[in-house]
């Protein structure tokens, strides 16, 4: 099995979701079954200008970059458009803690071997909210998971709220939406304050919901390799 790799980098921190701040390596695979209007990793949507790696070569690259960081995040695009079982198996056998970031459109049984699924269904502002999702399969099959929903509009907030009420036992992160060609750090912080006010004063949600920024974007900007 050969994987179209856009980038392998780290060690760095996870910049979003419930594991924000945790040290991790990243493996970004090319390709996605979605085309979100505000995609912040558009450079990973196609499998052009990539390097094809076997699972063993991905492992070798990770160990070359860091002999001590043993958490790895598989991301994209949508990494689940690829058969992840060979890669997850090799990484697990090497002792890695494995996190997977995906929107929930494609389930693979091997995802049950992952230590954390960052499940990010796309809200109305993405233009992909009507995409086919298999969320129940993730909830049933994942060992551990959380939802992360990007919020740019009131409709996005309502979408996330309804999802939270449907799966109240699953931790959820509301994340400030980043529009790559528009947002500065100051604008993102302003958006964050507004989203905090909205969620903090919503009596219909539980304390199992968190409001977080994209920490890596605030620290380094929206670019590859962070």
Q: What is the element layout, followed by pairings?
A:
Layout: E1 3-13, E2 23-29, E3 51-53, H1 55-65, E4 71-75, H2 85-93, E5 97-102, E6 116-119, H3 135-141, E7 145-151, H4 154-166, E8 172-176, H5 185-200, E9 209-212, H6 215-220
Helix pairs in contact: 1-2
What this model shows, in words?
The protein is an alpha/beta fold. The model has no long low-confidence stretch (mean pLDDT 94). It has one domain (3-220): Alpha-Beta Barrel (TIM Barrel), CATH 3.20.20.70. Strands 3-1-2-4-5-6-7-8-9 form a nine-stranded mixed beta sheet. It contains six helices and nine strands. The chain has helices spanning 55-65, 85-93, 135-141, 154-166, 185-200, 215-220; strands spanning 3-13, 23-29, 51-53, 71-75, 97-102, 116-119, 145-151, 172-176, 209-212. The two termini are 27 Å apart. 27% of the residues lie in helices and 23% in strands. Strand 6 (116-119), helix 3 and strand 7 (145-151) form a beta-alpha-beta unit.
